[in-house]
Give the backbone structure.
Amino acid sequence: MRVLDASFVQGFMRMADDGWQQGWHERNGGNLSYRIRPEEIEQVKEELVPGVWTPIGTTVPALAGEYFLVTGSGKYFRNVMTRPEDSICIIELDEKGENYRICWGLTGGGRPTSELPSHLMNHEVKVLATGGKHRVIYHAHPANTIALTFVLPLTDEAFTRELWEMATECPVVFPSGIGVVPWMVPGGREIAVATSELMKQYDVAIWAHHGMFCSGEDFDLTFGLMHTVEKSAEILVKVLSMTSVKRQTILPDDFRRLAVDFKVTLPEKFLYEK
Ligand code: 2HA
Ligand code: ZN
């Protein structure tokens, strides 16, 4: 089968285009990666041409030998639908999880996303934490979430609680909460370590004054997670634009009742009295 005809590639392209249409990917902003199933890579094997081994910049032994579909460094989400073969690539990791090689794509040259260390370290944490269920890591620059990093305290507790309050579905969609990474230089191992540490407990991490990372089982769930957090952030921005005091809101005991009916566990550290 042609790589571009495979359903996991089609799903990846659609998600990238959905993010572009949301306005989350100005210029070359954001990046997306998918951990390919063995049977999926088998389908497209004849089109793979391995390049040279290149250091990842970190070590991910739990992902040794795995294949990933990832966006390219400096490539635009806007072009993924029209020029996928130049915008995205399939990479293979070596037997130690120290190097990668490009096996398909980036026809005009280039490298995988500049955030490859963060993507792979998040994948590694999620493989271990979910028994391999999570396959998608998504980074975008949604404006309302970023705006809140200038006005809310940069704590997991503040972001989780404030965003849970803005839409009843939120604690059901991200019951474990949201982690916050203080401002750091992007692109390297240090921010990757900080993010993947948070991903041990959360499926969402916010990078102050930069953007958001989400992890999920498939394209629908991971895109939906980013979309839900950003929608909630948009509501909070609107509320804060009208007033600094909410007349009424969802209270800690309301969340506790919701948790029972929707069969989710909401950590008590987010249900503090204000
Ligand atoms: O330009 O979003 O964080 C890609 C990015 C870097
Ligand atoms: Zn970014």
About this structure: The pocket of Dihydroxyacetone (ligand 1) is lined by residues 28-31, 114-115, 139, 186 (CB under 6 Å).
